[in-house]
Design a protein that fits this description.
8 strands; 71% strand
Amino acid sequence: MRGVILHEPPLTNDAAPTQVRGSFSGTCSGELTNRRGRTRQLDDAKGAYRARPAGELSCLGGTAIGNGRLIFGRRIFGHRKVIEVSLTERRTPGVAEVTLEGAAGGSASVTGTVSPMGLVDAGERCSGSGLRRLRGDGRITSPGISG
């Protein structure tokens, strides 16, 4: 998945309480089962990940916790399928490792990386006015999650 991460206030080299909004979209593959036990195979199905964590963050890293959603397109069951999650995000420069816990059980992990172009001017912004917006990629894997 590809997307955008917004920080308020903008990240600097000094850790500060920060609100984050992440919005990613892409494709999903695997198996999805609805509440009635009906299963669908996903093969490059449209999906999205939205997250709203908060925590002590800087350009150098930090930890944030919050909530989010995994969203699957209408074509799967005739309506949009949403899995509510809680999350813990641990960051190091250029990388985020996120653990998702489904509201009704199960888990998933997300590895997020900042796009190479985003890293080019990040150092300058982190030392100056701050880094409000980052573009990146994320890969979600799960043995099973429900919400």
